[in-house]
Design goal:
Length: 26
């Protein structure tokens, strides 16, 4: 697993979590 792959995974999961939280707040 390359470093860029891990960064991409963290970024996507973070974006997913944030959008999920925003969805629940509305």
């Amino acid at each position: 697993m390359s470093k860029s792959h891990i960064t991409l995974f963290i970024l996507s999961s973070k974006t997913y979590v944030e959008s999920h939280l925003m969805f629940h707040q509305k």
